[in-house]
Amino acid sequence: MKGISILGATGSIGTQTLDVVRNSNDDFKLIGVTANSSVDKMKEIIKEFNPKYIGMMDADSAIKIKEFCLENNFKVQVYSGMEGLIKISTLDEIDIVVTSVVGMIGLKPTIAAIEAKKDIALANKETLVVAGELVMRKAREEGVRILPVDSEHGAIFQALQGNEIKDLKKIILTASGGPFRGKSKDFIKNVTLEEALNHPNWSMGSKITIDSATLMNKGLEVIEAHWLFDCNYESIQVLVHPQSIIHSMVEYRDASIIAQIGSPDMRLPIQYALNYPKRKEKVAKEIDFYEITSLTFEKPDIDTFKCLRLAFDAGKKGGLMPTVLNGANEVAVSLFLNKKIKFLDIADIIEDAMTIFEEYTHNDITIDNIIELDEKVRKYVINKKG
């Protein structure tokens, strides 16, 4: 039985990971979980799984969870803030950490887990976007496996099994295109928040759903793929595939292409990452090819959805530029979610920040420099637009 911790257990990936654990026939023991401030959801997790350790980022929420555990005689240790994330990432009892928190907050606990020699089931894109070089190097040094949970990277990971990385010619990342696929700038300049959150295929958290609508989600995945699979940016192609049946593909030097196909259900890549290299009985719906009328593919419109272009630019420039990209995007998406800016403003804000902070991006890639620059970028965007 594997001991696991889930960072971000009440979010979209976290709740689907709990479902995989729930249906695992006792292959896993849930040792630790964290959340931001979802007290009611955390109470339900405690009642069902009885984990030994809880982390709540919000201090008041941590107090409420402590009171609940005392009242109901649950023998649970409760932590708050970043201390809790790091503690629950490094417990002696765990073998693998599912990092499903959203944003830069996932960086420190992921690094701590690697240093504690825990395998990482990675669903936190931002960790590799801002610190891919550090994370992958440290994982190699500690003998730790980074197992991708994103459906696209999970698909690539599967398509690479049994083959040599030297034979890889191209990674083809598929994208649904989001709710505004095929729409013009004139159409989307006044779209509402509700329209942007209406993803056609996937049920995700609000930040990731907006990233999908701007195609920034795919841009972050490009940078992530660069580090996960040691692939240069010229060999990574994004392909819009509205049906979300082919989750990504790998082309080899002999022109053979291997695709991973499955239902648009995140439990499939989660289950594979947690059980790798074994496969278990399905938790996702089977594909019935008789019901699929067509699979279509399109070139992404990087003029209308320029976040994808900006992500490629940031990745190619390297250094700390992806930190600027990510920090500006997180703040811009938050502003849009709070209806303080328009949809197309998100990309403009990111582009402006990348220009303003160009001189900072050549500093050494260290955790301290990443965090310092991230804070500067966020303050700049907030002061200008917030």
Automatic annotation (TrEMBL):
Residue ranges of domain 1-deoxy-D-xylulose 5-phosphate reductoisomerase N-terminal in the record: 4-132
Binding site residues for 1-deoxy-D-xylulose 5-phosphate: K125, S151, E152, S176, H199, S212, N217, K218, E221
Single GO molecular function: 1-deoxy-D-xylulose-5-phosphate reductoisomerase activity
Keywords noted in UniProt: Isoprene biosynthesis, Magnesium, Manganese, Metal-binding, NADP, Oxidoreductase
Catalytic reaction equation(s): 2-C-methyl-D-erythritol 4-phosphate + NADP(+) = 1-deoxy-D-xylulose 5-phosphate + NADPH + H(+)
Domain called 1-deoxy-D-xylulose 5-phosphate reductoisomerase C-terminal: residue spans: 146-229
Positions with a binding annotation for NADPH: T10, G11, S12, I13, N124, E126, G205
Entries under InterPro entries matching the protein: DXP_reductoisomerase (IPR003821), DXP_reductoisomerase_C (IPR013644), DXP_reductoisomerase_N (IPR013512), DXPR_C (IPR026877), DXPR_C_sf (IPR036169), NAD(P)-bd_dom_sf (IPR036291)
Enzyme class label: oxidoreductase
Cofactor requirements of the protein: Mg(2+); Mn(2+)
PANTHER family reported for this sequence: 1-DEOXY-D-XYLULOSE 5-PHOSPHATE REDUCTOISOMERASE, 1-DEOXY-D-XYLULOSE 5-PHOSPHATE REDUCTOISOMERASE, CHLOROPLASTIC
Family: Belongs to the DXR family.
Designated name of the protein: 1-deoxy-D-xylulose 5-phosphate reductoisomerase
Upper lineage: Bacteria, Bacillati, Bacillota, Clostridia, Eubacteriales
